[in-house]
Design goal:
alpha/beta; 4-stranded mixed sheet; 12 strands; globular
């Protein structure tokens, strides 16, 4: 079983910086590479990025000029995934393992379609409270990765063991999930509720941690996900909702999810991955989802105002 000796990361948002900084400190700068387009590479060279007040020592390479990776990590926005996959083509060799840290429930399927399903380890990033403003990242909780494969294919299982052995060497918190699909839907449920409610309230994690209308609206949106999940054959329940709300309660009250960070920067968010996907799947099953419909409408209104300013 080939040992993972180097890491390539696509995406320099909150999670890209968080894990990039972690791996550089564990492995050294020469074992960790970021791949980006020409514009982002030039911006990094000029401005750099910072993690908890320290300037990061990252190696940045333009897409198409990189070597193959043992471990390839995607940490981009959902609407940039296919473009980012093109940048990463030369990173993928026969034994490359791919992890996606994207929100939602579809990125692994997209990457499997592009690179082949044997490369993919399904991954959920949770529990971190990373906030990125401009080129500066702040976090207090590293969180953990939940990893697994959706079937017992021998090559996928071997790659899962390779990743676990690597994480053990790095002392990176992770848990192997027997039912990784349910875990992905559970985390997506949290994003659908908490991220969108914080966005429309222009708030922070405190918005959904304190008892009141924000917390109740988040739970209502999550219950609509439970209904859709069950129609899709994924067995989510109230205990999953409560478990994830308990997790959300551990986050920095003054921190905020990436969707709210997008709102502050007047960037278009991943609303289509959240309520947009809920609406589409609910329509397929004839399920009414009024809370997500309202959240979707309000977020789209916020983003429409960007063009007027």
């Amino acid at each position: 079983m080939k040992q993972i000796e180097n890491v390539t990361i696509v995406g320099m948002g909150a999670l890209g910086i968080l894990y990039g900084d972690f791996f550089v400190k564990k492995m050294g700068r020469d074992r960790v590479t970021f791949v980006a387009d020409e514009e982002r590479t030039a911006r990094f060279a000029k401005e750099g990025v910072y993690c908890n007040g320290e300037k990061c020592s990252f190696t940045m390479v333009e897409g198409g000029k990189q070597a193959a990776a043992d471990l390839l990590i995607f940490a981009v926005k959902g609407n940039a995934l296919r473009e980012s996959a093109r940048l990463a083509e030369k990173s993928v060799a026969e034994d490359t393992v791919i992890l996606s840290l994207l929100n939602g429930i579809s990125s692994e399927e997209i990457l499997a379609e592009i690179f082949g399903p044997e490369h993919l380890i399904y991954t959920v990033a949770q529990g971190m409270d990373a906030t990125k403003i401009g080129n500066k990242l702040k976090f207090s909780n590293l969180g953990e990765l939940r990893i697994g494969v959706p079937d017992a294919d021998p090559r996928k299982l071997e790659n899962l063991r390779r990743v676990e052995a690597f994480f053990d060497r790095m002392s990176l918190p992770y848990t192997e999930e027997e039912d990784i699909k349910k875990r992905m839907w559970s985390k997506w449920m949290l994003n659908v509720g908490c991220n969108q409610v914080i966005m429309v309230n222009e708030g922070t994690y405190r918005t959904i941690q304190e008892e009141g209308s924000g917390r109740e609206m988040a739970k209502a949106a999550m219950r609509e996900v439970i209904a859709v999940a069950r129609a899709e054959g994924v067995h989510l329940g109230e205990e999953d909702l409560e478990g994830y709300m308990t997790l959300a309660d551990t986050l920095d009250p003054d921190g905020m999810p990436s969707m709210r960070q997008d709102g502050l920067a007047k960037r278009y968010s991943e609303v289509d991955l959240f309520s947009g996907t809920v609406l589409a799947k609910a329509a397929k099953h004839g399920i009414d989802v009024p809370v997500n419909r309202e959240l979707n409408r309000r977020i789209k209104e916020i983003e429409a105002a960007y063009e007027k300013n």
